[in-house]
Amino acid sequence: MTTEQSDATDGGGPAGSTTNGDTRLPAEAVGTDGTTAAPATDGAAARAATKDQPAAKPAGGDGPAAARTGAGNGASGVDPHSAATRDEPIAAPGDGAATAAHDGDSARKAGKAATTGQAGKAATTGKAGKAGATGKDAPAAGTEKADPWSAFGPAPDPVLTRPRRAVRAVGRFLVHEWTLAVVAALALAVLLTWPTLRYPLYTLPQDYWDPSLQSWQMAWSGHILLTDPAQLWHSNTFFPEQWSFAFSDTLLGYAPAGMIGTGPEAAVLRYNIMFVLAHALATFGAYALARQLGAGRIGAAVAGVSYAYAPWLLAQAGHLHIVSNGGIPLALAMLARGHGWSLRYGYRPERRHDGWAYAGWMVAAWQLSLGFGIGLPFAYLLAGIVLVSAVVWFTRRWLVRPGKRPFGSRLLLADLIGGTLFAAVGVLLAVPYFKVAELHPNAERTIGDIAIYSPPASGFFTAPAESRIWGGLHEGARATLPWHPEMTLLPGFVLYALAAGGLFFSVWRLRHRLLLLAGVLATMALAMGTRFFGGTFTYVPLFEHLPGWNGLRTPGRMMLWTTLLLGLLAAGAVTAFAARVRELAAERVPPWPGPWLRLATLLPLLLVIVEGLNTTPHPVVPVQPAVMRSVDGPMLVLPSSQNLDQPVMLWSTSRFQDVVNGGSGFTPDTLAHVRELTLGFPDQPSVDYLRILGVRNVVILRGQLAGTPWERIVDNPVDGLGITREEVGDAVVYHL
């Protein structure tokens, strides 16, 4: 061959080498537009030219030249990313090739021939050369026959109608991770709180004392916000006390639910539904936080389930304000997402989103509105995070990188607005409690009160009686605790083991693991109250110097934070374990995990679920006496005590008449005096005092008198007292 040949290569291989000899593209293979035939992409393409395929017609031009060009294209095995498959012109020698280069149809045909390897076969078999030797030229552009294989080309994408697009969007939503997480959290909540929803109109979890109080709280907030919002904090109970709604945590955040339905049955149903939803939110919130921090799905599920169903929380089934803790991890997850930060990947400015920051602050404010029992430590934690973040921001802004704003002005504005909203909600909620502390000095806690409820270290390994797995086995250990309902603080032996493994095998960095461990130990020390070296360096300074901290009666509830941190340590370990399983699966042929490998990744989650099984009792709520639906207030119901008055509060939800009765974290002096003075009712001193208070009716419930100091008062005469007596069903009503 006398023509100068090119040695264009790709990856070191000759551009046009085939098994039939050297067929490198000649220099004249350049078309009129300067385009060249596609070079060979790898050695495998050259071997593709020798396969037995039907011959292809030459692209055009002189026979030999066309043969050489076809061989080159076939050898190159033009891939879908070549010029031919992009409907771009492919150059060939001669006038015919130039014409094809300017004609889109011919270019597509050349591309098809190059892609299918037909031209390569023609060169290999020699048929293309023979065709060129006859001197026959290719037909002119636009006159060639239609390609019979074009019928097998891909059809254009269908144009989706609006209904089909909507259906497809709904389908994507239903299989999205977060949708599945919500559904799973709800299903698990129904199962692991069963039989809460078996008889939701008539039973309450654990007992009917505190749950009756909290059922009334939701009903009152919904009722009064619809009728007279200005009287929110002056409830119908503890008459004639003011600010009585602030005598305990209010669950004010559930007020929208309280606006639906009236009466005791609706209040009980509402409580049971919110009880189940609170567990679902806790699971989902902790799952979202672990995912945002960088855990895998199974690891995040372990964190979520362990946080919501830790054995120690089973003893809190009668305290909805403690169980309602899902807003804490959910708010932290949203704030971390808004600031583009995760524990595993650090700070990623491109992931910042001020909308998530706003959402996080709103959820945090809602969580605070459920009560200060767990909301106050959360508020101080957020204050600490804001303080640290502000120091970091100003340090980077003015010292490390002057002129650069690491958080962005929009995100900073979101934090200012959201933080102000959160602080405003906290202040507005705190005002009534400061009023109560001012009017009722006996409501203030002392270090002595804290010492009564401070658990020993053995409490961290003791489960409550409601635990199906450990309850019976730990009966002896519970007997050694002074007040076991608040001192059985076991978060789960499985969680302990997974968290311990997470210290050595985890996706978290070592310094993060050590920080999580430090948080676990610090919160455990706080949970021990005065039992940890007298609390001198832990609980006592907070009690004496942080506003509102002296209102927290039970230090053991700090175990909530211990459980969350242990869950994050466990999530890191389970995520690393699942990643290792995937690596082992990739080495299998085919690369797919077998049933035992899949089961191994789910085993930690299953064990955590099993350890959260409960035997929580669900007693039947006392039926509302008919007299509570007919007698006006202000009224006093006897007998009266802390536990007996809480169902009375629930019964008052039919009419919300004023009642002297009430149960809360403390007893006002007025109510204590009424209980003491009415032991001889009806007599002149008690009647006179009740009239001074403004009480119009006294209701005595015969069915509850047995075993109480008021057991015989129904036999006392009323002569000369100026009162009348009336029998209403099983109750006796005295009209003052």
TrEMBL record:
Keyword Manganese: no
The keyword Membrane is annotated on this UniProt entry: yes
Regions of compositional bias (Low complexity) in chain numbering: 29-70, 91-101, 112-143
Listed transmembrane segments: 173-194, 269-290, 297-314, 380-399, 411-434, 489-508, 515-539, 559-579
Domain of life assignment: Bacteria
Keywords of this entry: Membrane, Transmembrane, Transmembrane helix
Region (Disordered): 1-160
Protein name: Uncharacterized protein
Native source species: Micromonospora sicca
Lineage start: Bacteria, Bacillati, Actinomycetota, Actinomycetes, Micromonosporales
